[in-house]
Design a protein that fits this description.
The chain is α+β, with helices and mostly antiparallel strands and 377 residues long. The protein contains eleven helices and ten strands. The strands form two sheets. The protein has a six-stranded mixed β-sheet. Strands 4-3-7-10 form a four-stranded antiparallel β-sheet.
């Protein structure tokens, strides 16, 4: 019976942990910024993984390697900026046909102005291209609406008027048409309920399925002890810490470059995993160490929110509900891990040598690879 359980656990863990090696190919929503100019023009900046769009990577996949078109994506990812720019220009008609820009229900026709393609860089990291579009606002137009094609994935729409403070942000699922945005008078504010829904989902999906480094860290916390009390102490410590730095970062009190934060987050995964191998029980200092690492992870979460933006009218609500979504995601990881292996973990004679050690070493190896990759990259 123990042998059967052991095999089952290893198969499940291989299924869960296997895709974690491909985290660098994460698919994120397009960031769309629309600026309505005082001279009657509008500007649209779309920052997206255009290789994924060109390769036809379906938004149902959270990672490009899961798609049957992964080989095509990898070939595009290796192109020079000039060659990729040519591919995008050839695809521009199809891309623009899919995007729907409306003024009072009448479709507008934005035209491409320029394309910014970053250097090829590390092939294991997604490259984000920015397309600049422009058009003329019809005379007397009162409302604007936006739709991003379902086949291109989700989008975060950010709307602003030149000369006015404030940014209106919407998180739109695949093919969802935005709510009307008023071009005259006061812009319609996003309701609190909409903010709660959008940013809770955004926080949750940043962990499951997209936050693979955070998933590994939480699994590392879980493995050493499946008892709820010590696990709760660690998770609470981690939660308090990342809540502090998330808030301080968003409000501009602290700032640390992603080039520093991201390698340190990867290093935190290595530390927790190695400690699982070297010690047989939870030490009192672990909660303080986890707190320190939580401060780093909070800055990582802040980077995501900085890209997306927060609605000015519901800034605090969006911040808190994003953090709530992150917590739901982390608790879901723990719950799934407990259902898969937690109940069997009471059999201490085989749980540690056959689960804790091999899985922790696997997590440490992935974390070490990410640390080097993020440092060099």
């Amino acid at each position: 019976m123990k042998i059967i359980r052991f095999i089952a656990v290893q198969l499940v863990l291989a299924y869960v942990c296997g895709p974690l090696m491909a985290s660098a190919h994460e698919i994120r929503p397009a960031i769309v910024t629309v600026t309505f100019k005082a001279d009657g023009r509008y500007l649209i900046d779309i920052t997206a993984n255009m290789e994924a769009v060109l390769a036809g990577i379906s938004p149902v996949h959270s990672d490009t390697d899961e798609s049957p078109n992964a080989q095509s994506y990898n070939q595009l990812r290796a192109l020079s900026p000039a060659d990729l720019k040519t591919r995008i220009q050839n695809f521009a008609i199809t891309f623009l046909d899919g995007i729907v820009v409306e003024f009072d229900g009448v479709r507008g026709k934005p035209v491409p102005e320029s394309i910014e393609v970053p250097d090829t860089g590390d092939l294991q990291r997604a490259r984000l291209t920015t397309l600049h579009l422009s058009g003329t606002i019809p005379s007397g137009a009162g409302e604007f609406r936006w739709t991003y094609p379902a086949e291109f994935g989700s989008s975060v729409l950010r709307l602003q008027r030149e000369g006015r403070e404030g940014l209106t942000a919407f998180w739109l699922k695949e093919g969802t048409r935005s709510e009307p945005y008023r071009l005259t008078g006061e812009a319609k504010a996003v309701s609190r309920i909409e903010v709660v829904e959008q940013y809770t989902v955004l926080g949750f999906t940043h962990i499951l399925p997209k936050g693979l480094d955070h998933i590994l860290f939480v699994l590392g916390l879980f493995l050493l002890s499946t008892k709820w009390k010590p696990l709760l102490i660690q998770v609470t410590s981690f939660t308090v810490a990342h809540t502090i730095t998330l808030g301080l970062s968003i409000y501009g009190f602290i700032s640390l470059s992603p080039n520093i934060v991201e390698p340190l987050i990867a290093a935190s995964i290595v530390y927790v995993a190695i400690e699982n191998v070297l010690t047989t029980e939870l030490k009192p200092w672990r909660a303080f160490v986890v707190f320190g690492f939580g401060l780093l992870h909070g800055m990582g979460f802040a980077g995501v929110l900085a890209e997306i933006g927060l609605p000015r009218s519901e800034f605090l609500t969006a911040l808190l509900t994003f953090n709530l979504g992150v917590e739901f995601g982390q608790l879901s990881v723990i719950a799934l891990a407990y259902l898969l292996i937690g109940a069997w973990g009471k059999e201490k004679d085989w749980y540690r040598p056959r689960v804790v050690r091999p899985v922790s070493l696997l997590i440490a190896a992935v974390g070490f690879y990410w640390t080097i990759e993020r440092t060099i990259g």
